[in-house]
Amino acid sequence: MSRGHAVASEKLARSTGIVGLAVMGSRVLGVVREQLFAGLFGAGRELDAFVTAFRIPNLFRDLFAEGALSAAFVTTFAKKRETDGEAAAWRLVNLVLHALLLVAGLVVAAGMIFTPTLVDLIAPGFSEVPGKTELTVDLTRVLFPFLLFIAMAALAMGVLNSRNQFGVAASASIFFNLGSIVIGLIGAWWMAPGYIEAVIDGEWVATGPGAANAMTGMAVGTLLGGALQFLVQVPSVYKLGFRYRPMLSFSDPGVRDVLRLMGPATLGAAAVQVNVLVNNNLASGLGDGAVSWLNVAFRFMQLPLGVFGVAVGVVALPAVSRRVANADLAGMRSMVVRALRLVLSLCVPASVGLAVLAPDMIGVVYQHGKFDQRDTMMASHALVAYAIGLAGYANIKVLVPAFYALGDARTPALISCFSILVNAALGWTAIHVFGFGHVALALATSVVAVTNFAILYMILNRRIGALEGLGSSLLPILGGAMVVLAIASLVRFGAGVWLPNGTFVTRLVVVALAVPASAVGFALVSAALGLVESREMIDWLRARLGLAAGRP
Q: What is the rounded distance in angstroms from the CA atom of residue 364 to the CA atom of residue 362?
């Protein structure tokens, strides 16, 4: 590896580490938030209603805000700043901001008007449970303005990422989760006096006005958490030089470039979230709990997906865009391969660990209060199915921005549409023809994600030239993953022999021992088999430990 490539790899890894740590903090708080919901409400009517209600504005957020907008804006803003200078770039930010406020405001207004229709489309099975559809409609209307706040947060994130200010942007979602937890608890306490105390005391108020009102308070906290995610980024954006100017023009070339990329980019980013939404629709007819089990499993998937896939994609996009702007296809190929290798070396062992340790991880985090042993097992089965597609999910986050940097949002959009149709067909067949349960829905989504990645990879490989160096990493990664499987399985077996089966303490011991032991085992074995990324990580740790040891 040349010195230039080594430096680029180090910068990619360092920036990814910064984003990854911030995303990990957000995801951990997200799990705490989900744990809180599960403990207060269990996998029943209220939690199903909230998960579905939040999924509607959250889908728009992923498609139009954090997904398509960030990708389209980063690409356009970086090119504008390179070609036309700072002033033109900041003018573009003001123009996009006002266009965003107008469009997102109209979407929010329309969504709140047509909420009953949306809920019927997404969760038709809720009508079979008294009050479930009505509660979902009420919660959705509370949460829909979340889209407006998060769209502005995504724009601020795009500005910061374009200037290589990754830490603040990635940390903003921490404040969303903090706001959701703190303000949500205050809202639940205010709107349903005595409910939280009753749950803590073991007086299970399963349904009724108390539970519904408490959930409404939690929804208000989630909404205000979205506002915090935007506000914490504002000082950093101003520090870079942005100044607010009221202006609006849809005919501006920069705005048109953003919109031109956003249209197909929306579809390109849609696959995972729309597939989850389709699964929600199909699971809504499987009775209380199915929607919540899938949501819990996907929440665990989002931790490595965010820390590895999203973090690498966020860092790689500006670098890839600059190389394309300078007509450096060789540099682009090198950056994409490094990003893919890094994601695979992190996600493959993570997926094996998730599959083996699913009951223990979910049990430690969620099995409290009204979330019982059966809920843990049902959610863990879904997590095993989701884990199969983790590497595919994560590497899509790397490949799709590469197409955007080339000015091609159409190809990912077409493949995304195809994958959505395939997922819907597989899920419908599994439920309505073969009578399978919620696990089949998770498995179908994973199969589609891996297929989506494979198609994108083959097309990009032909478009920019051979992506050399990826194949040589597969053998050491798989060898290390087998070690993860062995270590995690042995720890679980040993705990089952020496400790009471299925208790919180046993599961905590399993997770606390198996995760670090598996990580060390993977790093050592994969490095011995020739994985450069593991060798670099070991060398970095040795250097840090050596410096620490040499200090007085």
A: 6
